[in-house]
Design brief:
The complex is a heterodimer of chains A (about 450) and B (about 400).
Chain A lengths: L5 H8 L6 H20 L24 H10 L10 H6 L2 H9 L10 E5 L2 E5 L9 H22 L3 H32 L4 H10 L3 H4 L1 H15 L23 H26 L10 H6 L1 H31 L6 H32 L13 H32 L7 H31 L1
Antiparallel strand pairs in A: 1-2
Helix pairs in contact in A: 2-11, 2-15, 3-11, 5-6, 5-11, 6-7, 7-10, 7-16, 10-11, 10-16, 11-15, 13-14, 13-15
Chain B lengths: L1 E3 L5 E3 L1 E5 L11 E7 L2 E8 L7 H4 L9 H5 L6 H16 L5 H29 L3 H22 L8 E2 L2 E2 L7 H23 L3 H7 L7 H6 L4 H5 L7 H4 L20 H25 L17 H6 L1 H12 L7 E9 L2 E9 L7 E5 L1 H7 L1 H5 L4 H10 L4 H5 L1
Antiparallel strand pairs in B: 1-2, 3-4, 4-5, 6-7, 8-9, 9-10
The chains are: A mainly alpha (about 450), B alpha+beta (about 400).
Chain lengths: ~450, ~400
């Protein structure tokens, strides 16, 4: 009989973490659009609104909704001559990989809970294997299949060119990606991602000990995700849209979502290896556990203050907007009133919650601090704080992806190959060699 | 596609249609390429997707009625085409237009050149994947279109000049608006410069990309910025000055290698020169008549036509017969944004053109395109295409 004790339930509950990158997709898309419009002196998405909720647009975030509806309701077109089976299978692969990969990323520090058979350690990874990193690399290598199969199966020359580019590029950069990360494995002495994060908490962030590795890894991730300046597989001005040129509706949407999920995972991987993973800077897991009430209160307060900041921003817009002669003044006034009210209330509410957390969450206090559930509360609270920290780091890295995309021109195919094999591979090898020598000298 | 190389080797090539339905050829051009991997082994280009029969159409109306058609030649700088045509006809009549009209034409020419170059540079950058430049350059262009709208009522097809002068005088606040637009263009251009000029990726992509030698460019009949990019100092504004261009202080921008980088950079620096010419023209702008008083060209005006018999007859003849261009053959050209825009005009002395042949600058440039891109990669071919600035309206006419 299965023993439904606490460690087992927690291990099941961890599966929910798989969906974090999926939930980050709309945020990434929003960031991409609004970031692009910010850099390009234009408005960005500002038309989509929810009429039933007073026409709110949430600064363009609502645009995701009609886009989703559009992708689901458009015609699912299969071009003549396409190999139907592979054509239909291909878009599922990137998203499937994107769903599998988060299972090896440590989302929070290992927690010790009391089960029916004594104390048990619940890891922050869904799949806590020593080969964690290798699984990760293997999975990300798998996502090429979606691109290549889709390109080949859609019976289009542009798609074929895109698939060719994509396969060559991704395979090349896998090499320098692995080698640039090898330095940090060498220093930590483990393939386990949890141990890598714990080492960073104990010593210093990976970016400090492996700055070259960090830059190389980041660059490889750009190539790996096929983002600008490495987006030759799409190359919309050259080969139209590359590998997904023949895809429409939600099958295109799957590729699209796969790309953003891939970015989110790349962010998770980068922050895990080089930016301290789920750790709050200068606070290791023990410190968070000891000051849980204060830490969680501070985080909630920061979110609450940002909400108040947004409300203030909305008020300023409303003031500017009221001076302009527009045809939709009534609608906008209503929307701004709703946004202002909602964000003010949420912000103040969160501040209140933060105060409550700081005051109440303490083992000495009654209520939440009651002795019997206190350990569980500390564990879950710490996990929540750490997941939130990792998500913030991921979003920061996603912003770098957006930033670079709208700044740099695209490489040419042969230049990407030359960069990958002639420059990055060599630097990665030298970096690995130097790291190995230094690590040997230091560690003995 | 199996082909036999001159060395007797059998190779397998992939044939791809780049265009007409392609983001970089926007439905108007076609390059049929045979690819060996990513390298272009052979190209055949095809034109005519935007052919409207301009040269035949204009024979149907009077000389004045040609003007709206010229708007549709290079639609990125319509006023330059108007000026080119009017300039040619005025030279046939040997009339001088008033000083204000000249200065205004220079001003509008250079503003048009700016927005035309802006389109080319922005599109070239966008085709290289640097989309942000596009907006930095297109936002001031939008302001220029605002000026066009106020001046002529149209944004794209302005038809602002007339044979013997201009459609009408400027509006109140025109000068200050142009001055502020110039500042914005400068700012957008500086932003684009900062993004591109020392950008390693941009340089690697465009340096040595589809170069053409000065001799080849000349023998292909290239003109304008693309010719100057090869190092040939040829600018009609300097070499055969019109509209008193010799009195303006500006430099011709000359490149060295004739590659895509030079072509883009020549255009960017020419925008700077054009801004300076615009400022000089603004400083020279004095109130005065904008039309010549030559009755063969210009309507006498309502006040006269209603009260004076001769003026009424004059009005009738100019409108119904058209301006009677002296019989003969004539070639007149100006330095349009893309190069030498020439009108070869044959008149039989009547009010209608016997023949108008346009020499569009990008026709010769596109003719060399197939030779330029052979041996380079697909991505280079696209970068080259946008840098030689093919405007299908004047290419196909």
């Amino acid at each position: 009989m299965i023993d439904f004790d606490l460690p087992f339930l927690l291990a099941i509950a961890k599966f929910a973490l798989v969906f974090i990158p999926l939930c980050l997709i709309p945020i990434c898309i929003f960031m991409e659009r609004k970031g692009a419009s910010l850099m390009q002196d234009r408005y960005g998405p500002n038309r989509a609104n929810i009429p039933l909720l007073g026409g709110i647009r949430l600064f363009g975030f609502v645009q995701n909704l009609p886009d989703g509806i559009k992708l689901f309701t458009k015609e699912n077109f299969i071009p003549r001559g396409a190999h139907t089976f592979w054509y239909l299978l291909a878009p599922m692969i990137p998203l499937a990989v994107a769903l599998l990969t988060p299972s090896v990323i440590p989302w929070f520090g290992p927690m010790v809970v009391e089960g029916s058979r004594g104390l048990a350690t619940v890891s922050g990874q869904i799949l806590d294997a020593d080969s964690g990193v290798l699984v990760l690399f293997a999975l990300s290598g798998l996502s090429i299949y979606g691109v290549v199969l889709g390109a080949w199966a859609s019976n289009s020359k542009y798609a074929l060119l895109g698939g060719m580019r994509a396969s060559a590029q991704m395979i090349s950069y896998e090499v320098s990606m692995g080698l640039s990360a090898a330095g940090i494995f060498l220093i930590v002495g483990s393939f386990s991602l949890t141990q890598i994060v714990e080492w960073q908490a104990a010593h210093t962030w990976g970016i400090v000990v492996q700055p070259v590795g960090f830059v190389l890894f980041l660059t490889s991730l750009f190539a790996e995700t096929g983002r600008a300046p490495f987006d030759m597989a799409e190359g919309e001005s050259e080969i139209v849209a590359g590998y997904f040129v023949e895809y429409s509706a939600i099958r295109f949407g799957l590729f699209y979502m796969g790309e953003y999920a891939h970015i989110a995972i790349a962010g998770a991987l980068l922050s895990t290896l080089f930016l301290g993973g789920y750790q709050i800077p200068f606070m290791d897991t023990e410190a968070v556990r000891a000051n849980l009430g204060f830490v969680s209160g501070a985080i909630v307060a920061a979110v609450g203050l940002s909400c108040l900041g947004i409300a203030y921003m909305v008020r300023r817009w409303a003031r500017i907007y009221s001076r302009m002669q527009t045809t939709d003044a009534v609608d906008r006034k209503r929307e701004y009133n709703i946004l202002n009210g909602a964000f003010s209330v949420i912000g103040l509410g969160l501040l209140a919650v933060a105060a409550a957390l700081m005051v109440l969450v303490h083992p000495a206090k009654g209520g939440l601090g009651a002795a019997d559930i206190w350990p569980l509360w500390v564990n879950l609270g710490t996990a929540a704080v750490q997941v939130g920290t990792l998500v913030v780091k991921i979003l920061a890295i996603c912003w770098i992806f957006v930033w670079v995309r709208w700044t740099l021109p695209r490489f040419r195919y042969d230049q990407v190959m030359a960069l990958g094999w002639k420059i990055m591979l060599n630097i990665a090898l030298v970096n690995l060699l130097v790291t190995a020598v230094v690590a040997k000298l230091v560690k003995g | 596609m199996k082909v036999l190389t001159p060395q007797g080797e059998k190779i397998d090539l992939l044939t791809v249609n780049i265009g007409p339905s392609h983001p970089a050829t926007h439905g108007a051009l076609r390059a049929f390429v045979a690819l060996d991997g990513e390298t272009i082994a052979g190209t055949v280009t095809e034109i005519g997707y935007l052919h409207r029969g301009f040269e035949k159409m204009v024979e149907q109306g009077t000389w004045q009625q040609v003007l709206p058609y010229t708007d549709r030649l290079n639609y990125c700088s319509a006023i330059l085409n108007n000026i080119g045509f009017c300039h040619t006809i005025e030279r046939m009549f040997e009339v001088e237009i008033p000083e204000r009209a000249k200065v205004l034409r220079v001003l509008l020419s250079e503003l048009s050149r700016i927005i035309d170059h802006v389109v080319c540079v922005a599109a070239a950058a966008a085709d290289l994947g640097a989309l942000t430049n596009y907006f930095y350059l297109f936002n001031p262009r939008e302001k220029v279109y605002g000026i066009w709208e106020k001046l002529s009522g149209a944004r794209l097809t302005n038809t602002f000049t007339r044979i013997g002068g201009l459609y009408r005088d400027t509006y109140d606040g025109f000068e200050s608006e142009v001055a502020s637009v110039l500042v914005e263009v400068e700012k957008g251009l500086d932003d684009a410069f900062r993004l591109l000029q020392h950008n390693r990726i941009f340089i690697e992509r465009t340096r040595g990309c589809c170069p053409i030698s000065a001799e080849d460019a000349v023998s292909w009949g290239w003109t304008g910025p693309c010719l100057r990019a090869t190092g040939v100092d040829r600018d009609l504004r300097k070499d055969e000055p019109y509209l008193d261009y010799e009195t303006y202080d500006f430099q011709t921008v000359v490149g060295s290698t004739g590659d895509t980088f030079d072509r883009v950079m020549v255009r960017m620096y020419e925008i700077k020169e054009s801004i300076s010419i615009c400022r000089q023209a603004l400083a020279r702008l004095r109130p005065g008549p904008i039309n010549t008083t030559d009755p063969r060209l210009i309507l006498p005006g309502h006040g006269k036509a209603y009260h004076d018999m001769e003026a009424l007859i004059n009005h009738f003849k100019v409108v119904f017969e058209g301006v009677c261009v002296p019989a003969g053959e004539f070639y007149g050209s100006i330095e349009a944004a893309n190069g030498e825009l020439g009108f070869f005009v044959v008149s039989d002395g009547s009010g209608k053109p016997w023949k108008i042949k346009v020499r569009p600058p990008c026709f010769t440039q596109f003719a060399a395109y197939a030779d330029l891109v052979e041996g380079s990669m697909v991505a280079d071919a696209i970068a080259c295409l946008s840098s030689i600035n093919i405007i299908a309206g004047e290419l196909d006419r």
